[in-house]
Amino acid sequence: MMKDKKIVCPLLLDKETYLPDTIDLLNDKEAISYWLPCLEEMARNFVNKVSYLCPHDKTATERAKYTWQKFHDFIEQIKYNPQQFKPLSIRTLLEFNEENLRKSNFDDPWLLQKQKETVAAFTQYQDRVNFVDSIEDFYLKWEELSKGLVAGNLFDWGAKAIADILEECNGFGLTHAMQKIQQRPWFHDDLDKWISKLKRTPYVKAVVFIDNAGVDFVLGVLPLTRELLKQGTSVVLTANSGPALNDVTYSDLEVYLKSAEQKCDVLRDAIANNRLMAIENGQKGPCLDLRTLHNGNCTNPV
């Protein structure tokens, strides 16, 4: 892993006032009442799943119980006196959980799950891009790609509602996920304006921050990346520096792109000509903090 200095994203409109958290748990009683038990249950569910995630680790369940107890104790401290933990947000709690796992020698406990889901998703990749290619209308094509990106983001094992669906339905895929997303117009919906801009002035360069492995990356991110490349845009795919839930790490990304090269001429040619590159983003948790980016995200030319 690279050790370069982390920097603030230069594209932020106001670097001084930017905060990565949409919810301040210290000042939102309803939110903290919801999120504390929700995140505690997420940590508890890891105990139930760890024997599947780490089948060859005989001490995994015992260590997972220990990490859950530490997380539970931390939550109890927050309930007693939340003001002693500043800042307090979903991001900081998830980062504490990841640090807790590392201390118990869970380096990347979701690695096997990520590999399985990604291999399975690649079997559907060609059908997905064939369908996208069959859409002749520019606006409809990019709306489909955008919906695929939103639907792919549902495959997040850190979200309780989604984890329940994934546990109950082994065949849950992108098509099912696209039926789950809200119908447009969305709560914040500038998609039509963005597509018009994209048609009028294609990007010279795009940096895509990757989230979940499996369907999200293979059937959501890669088809969109492919279409950007076809427009002449150079693309940087950036992934977490360290493991967090089922998020793609930089080391994962390098492996996945080797598989992508074998599946797609557009991606293979772009990689060969340095128009598609992979870098790490400096993040150690599942939430993106644009104040702590790896400098390659902001300075790396393509």
UniProtKB/TrEMBL annotation:
Gene Ontology molecular function, alphabetical: ATP binding; pantothenate kinase activity
Residues in Damage-control phosphatase ARMT1-like metal-binding domain copies: 43-278
Keywords from the named record: Nickel, Nitration
Substrates-to-products reaction catalysed: (R)-4'-phospho-S-sulfopantetheine + H2O = (R)-S-sulfopantetheine + phosphate
Cofactor (UniProt): Ni(2+)
GO biological process: coenzyme A biosynthetic process
Designated name of the protein: 4'-phosphopantetheine phosphatase
Source species: Photinus pyralis (Common eastern firefly)
